[in-house]
Structure formats: C-alpha cells, structure tokens
Amino acid sequence: MGYQNSPASAEVREKKSRERAMAGACLSSSSCCWNLASKFNTLSLNGPHPNAAALKPLSFSANTSLNLFSKGSVSLTSVQMPFRRSIVCEAAPTKKADSAAKRARQAEKRRLYNKAKKSEVKTRMKTVLEALDTLKKKTDAQSEEVISVEKLIAEAYSAIDKAVKAGTLHRNTGARRKSRLARRKKAVEIHHGWYVPAPVAEPALVATA
C-alpha cells in the first residue's frame, strides 16, 4: 500500500497514461494523413469550390497536379509537439547480390585472364618456332645467329612460367612446351653442325662362363 501511494508510483502511472495518449494521437494522425491523401485526389485548386477562401493559401501554383499522391511526389509526415513524433515511410533495403550471379562474374573474369595468358604463350612459342625454321633453311647460317633465338626462347620460357604460376597452365603442360622449344633448337644446331651429340655408350656384354 505504501508503494502504491508513493510519489514515484504516481509518476509512473502518469508517464504510462501520457504514453498511451501519445500512441493514440499518433495512430489517429496517421489515419488522418491517409484520409487526406484520398481527399487530395479529388481536390481542385483552380476550379470553383465551396471553401475556396480556406483553400486560397494552397493555390501556390496554377499547374498543381491532382494526382500528386498517386505519383508519389508528396510525402506526408505527422508531427506532434513537443516530442516531435513523426511517421516516416522508408524504402525496403536493397536485395543482396545473388551468389550464383557473383560466381558467374568471377568465372567470366578468370576466363578472360586465362585466355590472355594462353594467347601470350602461343604467340611467343610461334615466334620462336618460326625463327628456328628460318635459321634451319639458311645455308650460310652462322652459330652467332642462335643468340637472338635464345633471347626469344627465354621470353617464351618466362611467359610459360608465369602462366603456370597463375594456374592457367598445368606444370606438366608448361614443362612439355619448354621441352618442345629446347628440342627444336637442338635439332637446328645438329643440322648445321654446331652441336654434336655425345655418342651413346653401348652396354658392356657380360662374359658368361
């Protein structure tokens, strides 16, 4: 009984009654706002109206549209003093990006990157092979001419190693491409006599008793 008659309990009851009153006023103001929107659809500011004197301050433009609310160009806010409670209409949050669409974008990006890397490897290998074929067909070729071809081979090796490191080519595929260039260079050197392979030693025959 002492708690119910205390000033603190009276203050709590008064605060709750104020909150219920403000909630009711807020709901009534929101319903009034929506009713006002339907009334504005039939409101004419330029034609004859029985309350023309009361609506005279609203005639701020001769081109005022009658369907402002249907087009979403007017927003209503119900404000109650002194607490400044308002009704705000917020747009729905943007939809999160679809994971499948993201994966598709990533796959397309990787495809273009891998395509460029493979194209670079093929171009450099083609340049080396053409240079070796030209050198092989020359009858008066000199051994110093191989140095320029070796520079092209080094550039092709670098492109292959980068493609393997990036995951565009398998390491075994990169090794085969490099081996192909090395074999072709050795064949040109053997053709012109610049390189003489070591003779293959025959296996020794085991004497049988």
Protein architecture, described:
The protein is mainly alpha-helical and 209 residues long. The chain is 59% helix and 0% strand. The chain is built from six helices and no strands. It has helices at residues 7-40, 52-55, 68-71, 99-137, 146-166, 171-192. Helix 4 packs antiparallel against helix 5 and helix 5 runs antiparallel to helix 6. The chain is rod-shaped and about 120 Å long. The model is unreliable at 55-76 (pLDDT under 50).
What key phrases describe this protein's structure?
rod-shaped, single chain, mainly alpha, 209 residues
TL;DR?
With 209 residues, the chain is an all-alpha fold. The protein contains six helices and no strands. The chain is rod-shaped and about 120 Å long.
Distance between the termini: 127 Å
List the uncertain runs: 55-76
Helicity range: 55-70%
Summarize the main sheet: none
Alpha-carbon Rg, integer = 44 Å
Would you tell me the overall average pLDDT?
Answer: 76
Assign an overall shape.
rod-shaped
